Amino acid sequence: MGRILIRDLATYSYHGCFEEENKIGANYKLNIWVDGDFSKAESTDSLIDTIDYVELADLAAKEMASPSRLIEHVADRILSKILSRWSQITLAGLTIIKVSPPMNEFVKSVEYTIEKRQA
User: Fold this and answer.
1) Tens of pLDDT, residues 44-98
2) pTM of the predicted structure, to 2 decimals
3) How far apart are CA 61 and CA 30, in angstroms?
4) N or C: which end of the chain has fewer CB within 10 A?
5) CB atoms within 10 A of CB 119
6) What's the rounded Cα separation, in Å, for the pair 42 and 18?
């Protein structure tokens, strides 16, 4: 078993419960990981035998471009698409980090982490 990890994928997206968040947007970072048997890719050195992390990042960025009120909802959408796209993934996980969210107090970031197993 192996793990592919994308760390700090940066996006500018329009998620939030406040009208201003949907107009102004905010910076986000994503950490995405997928677990699976990548032993074939280890021996063949072929992209077709693994998960293309460029495609994985593009999928997540595309979903981040579609506004939602809650980052929990966006996270679920991203993981559902990942698991339906690559059947060889046994576990997928994601942390969405909203940088400097609008709050009454200063907070560097708010994070939501989720993992899902392949059905």
Assistant:
1) 999 999 999 999 999 999 999 999 999 999 999 999 999 999 999 999 999 999 9
2) 0.92
3) 9
4) C
5) 6
6) 47
